[in-house]
């Protein structure tokens, strides 16, 4: 069985922990503790191959710190998270993407990475339009997923995609 590791980064409150808990434990985390920082692991089958993914759920990536840099150095794959109901959180994803390429010393296109927009169930509060994401996905050549940890929508797909990218590295 092949093992991979990934880190989940993004602004506070966007839903990183809820995403990881949905993915690894199939539960919805509706309490908010911005300080939780924890390692999770899941074993599942992607295209007939059993894989293990170790996922680090981080806290407080509000600004780029030495810790963020250490996380980036240690990780192979990246899940960059923003909230579909908070346009400003998309800016953080853009910054992180630039920093990852700098720290890894490779072009952005060569880093296994998915961008995850969360809280798609909150349709009436939505601030980020699908066209914006389509345009960014095209510009960055990075896959975007619109997810809901609450409704369990497109969470698994995002992690499947990440593993597929890491397998070809
Ligand atoms: P983090 O700081 O990025 O780890 O954010 P959390 O995962 O702790 O989520 C922050 C808040 O948003 C919590 O109250 C979650 O229950 C809520 N939340 C996270 N994901 C979703 C979602 O998909 N739908 C809804 N409605 N709320 C969510
Ligand atoms: Mg969290």
Descriptive account of the structure:
This protein has 169 residues and is of the alpha/beta class. It contains five helices and six strands. A six-stranded mixed sheet has the order 2-3-1-4-5-6, with helices on both faces. The site of guanosine-5'-diphosphate has 18 residues, from helix 1. Magnesium ion binds at residues 16-17, 34, 36, 57, 59.
Spans of at least 5 consecutive residues whose pLDDT stays below 50 are: none
Largest beta sheet: strand ordering: 2-3-1-4-5-6
Tell me the span between the first and last alpha carbons. 16 Å
The helix tally amounts to 5
Strand residue content: 25-35%
The run of helices and strands is EHEEHEHEHEH
Q: Overall 3D geometry?
A: globular
Broad structural category = alpha/beta
Radius of gyration: 15 Å
Give the ligands present: guanosine-5'-diphosphate, magnesium ion
What integer is the average pLDDT?
Answer: 95
- Count of DSSP E strands? 6
Question: What is the share of helical residues?
Answer: 25-40%
